[in-house]
Amino acid sequence: MKSKVAGIAFLIGSLYYVVAEAVSAAFFNASLFDAYVFHAISELGIPDANSPLFWLMNSAFILIGLTLIFGNFYTFKDFIVKNRRIFYVLTLITGLGVIIVGMIHGGNPLTSGYHTLGAVMAILGGNILLVLISRSMDVFDQYQKITLLLGLIGLVAFWILFFSMDSIYMAVFERISVYTLVIWSFLSGLYLVRS
Fold first, then answer.
1. What sign does the CA torsion over 71, 119, 158, 34 have?
2. Which of 90, 86, 64 is closest to 179 using CA atoms?
């Protein structure tokens, strides 16, 4: 029963994030294509005329951060057979990082440093967490292999992003490094529900 509750939470959190971003991007002051390719996800959460549904995007950040912390601490910890302390620490770093991104928006010189810190905690911490999870369970089957692949893709995308901040395609690398976590949340929801 605990697995199903956490699984449903993961499914709701990941699906809400995808839908909230899509709706926020649709109402962003740019075409849907441009919003996804040329504008960072954080821009959708800045409260200004460009993003009238900023609150929706920020709620998605906060919800998926809470979902990760709840799901991992409530049930997923039971599937981790080694590296548990690091698992807990990385879960908190990732979850709190995403929540910070949702609560402290970018674009404000006074708070942008905190927003950036939250983003690094979420993206870098999250993808390292995926790699750790894949190697910390009692088996290394299809789910663990997909988790490892997602973590590695996210880390490579983050590395490229880090050295391509001035690129017009920066938002693409950012989304790749973030979507690995969203996809993992959805797959973990399915994994836990089936467990």
1. positive
2. 64
- Residues of the chain where predicted confidence (pLDDT) is lower than 50: none
Summarised one tens digit per residue, pLDDT across range 36-81 is 999 999 999 999 989 999 999 999 999 999 999 999 999 999 999 9
- The domain tally of the chain equals 1
From CA 46, how far away is CA 60, in angstroms rounded? 13
Q: Would you state the pLDDT for residue 90? A: 98
Q: What is the DSSP letter of 139?
A: -
Token representation of residue 107: 């674009």
Contact assessment for residue 133 and residue 94, using Cβ atoms and an 8 Å cutoff:
no
Q: In which domain, by residue range, is 165 found? A: 2-194
Coil vs helix vs strand at 80? strand
10 Å Cβ neighbour count for 170? Answer: 17
The phi, psi pair for 39, rounded to 5°, reads -125, 130
